[in-house]
Amino acid sequence: MNSLTKIISVAAILVAPAFAGAAGGGAALDHFTPERTDRTLQRGAKVFMNYCSGCHSADYHRYSHMARDIGLSDSAVVENLIFTTDDAGEKTKVGALMGNNMSAEYGKEAFGVVPPNLALVARSRGVDWLYTYMRSFYLDESRPFGANNTVFPQVGMPHVLSDLQGWRKPIYTTDSEGHEKLAGFQQVTAGTLSEDEYDATITDLVSFLDYLGDPNREARHSLGIKVMLFLLIFLVLAVFLKKEYWKDIPH
Questions:
Q1: Which residue in 119, 208, 221, 247 is deepest, having the highest Cβ count within 10 Å?
Q2: Could you read off the pLDDT of 46-60 as tens digits, one per residue?
């Protein structure tokens, strides 16, 4: 991908919130607080690489950078989290960008739209939206992949985690003014995880996507605190210096 294409891709991701109302279903969003522990991010990376990276890239990051940030060795990443090959057919190196082997042309033909780069999706959509979206798929046989979503109606993405969550159908109620409101979901077929276990998996995944969107946030916040402490100490010293300098000067 050349520089111009990357700039256009970033711009498209950053302006996406302006169109969220048109694409979204107006469903209420659940509040979500990302976790930044190594264990959470490691589990989230595993879910992302196994279920998301086949279609979605995150090629503003390098595997080696991710490994360092979430407490993994380069060898562990190579053995467990890299599933792509380079142009020569060799396994992708740990220093490479986190891309995938799906071409844009194939993605558009398969899904009707090129699957977006997920490196900045947490910043463009927000973690509340992502957390609710990944827990709002339901069975809809009228859709090409048999899945729909209450947060993003007529979504083109298949429910890639259906083996974990199983299939559900939405339950709606009608208020006194005749407006339909989502009341919950009814389980149709069971998945391999319980509801709590699936929610924990989505917590790991969305936390990892949040990390991808701002990988240096913790370091930046830590540095900001240190700078503020330095300025506070400097202010105290400046006040004492002023008093010492002016004490012998008549007013």
A1: 208
A2: 999 999 999 999 999
